Amino acid sequence: MSSEPEEEPVSVLQRFEKRLEGLVEGAFAKVFKGVVHPVEILNAMQREAEAHKAILAGGRTLVPNRYVIDLSPYDHSRLAPYAAALAQELAQSQAEFIGEQAWTVYGDVIVEIERGDGLDTGMFRVTAEVYTGGDVAPVAAPSYDAPPQYAPYDQPAYPGSGGPAGARNVRLVSGDGRTYPLAIGSTVVGRGDQANLRLPDVGISRRHARLDYDGSQVVLTDLGSTNGTMVNGQRISAVALNPGDMIQLGTTTLTFRVDG
Predict the structure, then answer these.
(1) Hey, is 252 helix, strand or coil?
(2) How far is CA 219 from the centre of its chain?
(3) How many C-beta atoms surround the C-beta of residue 98 within 10 A?
(4) Alpha carbons 235 and 6: distance in angstroms, whole number
(5) Which helix (DSSP H) or strand (DSSP E) does residue 27 occupy?
(6) Tens digits of per-residue pLDDT, 132-166?
(7) H-helix or E-strand containing 14?
(8) What is the pTM (predicted TM-score) of this model?
(9) Fewer CB within 10 A of the end CB, N or C, for the chain?
(10) What is the DSSP string of 31-97?
């Protein structure tokens, strides 16, 4: 006797495929013949949501709402005329999938399609994160009549809280006494140029971990780092931080502090 655990995700995929058929009079079928297919991308987005779940206070499950799709240069050039329409359909289908799982997101589901210069034809990469708005305020409810909002890559993550009234001042303190205030939104920690908070530690990946602060709590997510992220001696994938928690990345230890 076989079970069908994938029934709900498949229904989302089927609806997605049907909508694709009606887009630009079948141009998608020609564009994707022999190369990456949108259904594969949506499948990967669903897996990313599943892999980056975080349990919030009250038992709610938070999953990423921003998905960056890197396509090979060849696929990206072929897709360019349809990228906005595809991003819109991917965002709608992912929102449906998340709703069926009864998961929580901040604001709208956002999909961006980018050129991935290191990717071979037919290959793609999906990066998922919790995007809390930064300097771009998401609309109150999902709307798919217009292209999805595009979030800036280089949000100012600190210094200062920069958040709404009532937000607590939170910070990380290193073993040598250096203090790193966290702002509302996402802060990527790593040793590479793309990190908002850069730490000169060879044991830390270029994009090692991410801190998402909504004004009341901070969720720490490991970004698939080589050496992992530890909180109070336990390796984590995603966890809500408590005051006094000890975070270890490479050989660097940071203590999570909350004012007030």
Answers:
(1) strand
(2) 12
(3) 21
(4) 29
(5) helix 27-31
(6) 754 333 322 232 222 333 332 222 232 333 333 34
(7) helix 7-21
(8) 0.49
(9) N
(10) HTTTS--HHHHHHHHHHHHHHT-EEPGGG-EE---EEEEEE-HHHHHHHGGGHHHHHHHHHHHHHHH
Q: Name the one residue in this structure whose structure tokens are 């937000």.
A: 167
Give pLDDT tens digits for 83-111: 888 898 899 899 999 988 889 888 788 99
Both tokens assigned to 260? 């007030």
Q: What is the pLDDT of residues 58-75, one digit of tens each?
A: 788 899 999 999 998 988
Token code pair at residue 194: 């793309």
What band does 245 get if pLDDT is binned at 50, 70 and 90? very high
Distance CA 139, CA 133 (A): 10
What are 149-157's contacts with CB under 8 Å, separation 24+? 149/108, 149/110, 150/110, 150/112, 151/66, 151/110, 151/112, 153/194, 155/185, 155/186, 155/196, 156/183, 156/196, 157/182, 157/183, 157/185, 157/186, 157/187, 157/188, 157/196, 157/197
* Residues in contact with 50: Cβ distance below 8 Å, sequence separation at least 6, in sequence order: 63
Instruction: Provide the 10 A C-beta neighbour count for residue 128.
Output: 21
Q: Which residue type does 166 have?
A: G
> What is the spatial distance between Cα 108 and Cα 139, in angstroms, rounded to a whole number?
7
- Quickly tell me which residue has 């931080």 as its tokens: 241
**How many CA within 13 A on the CB side of residue 87?**
26
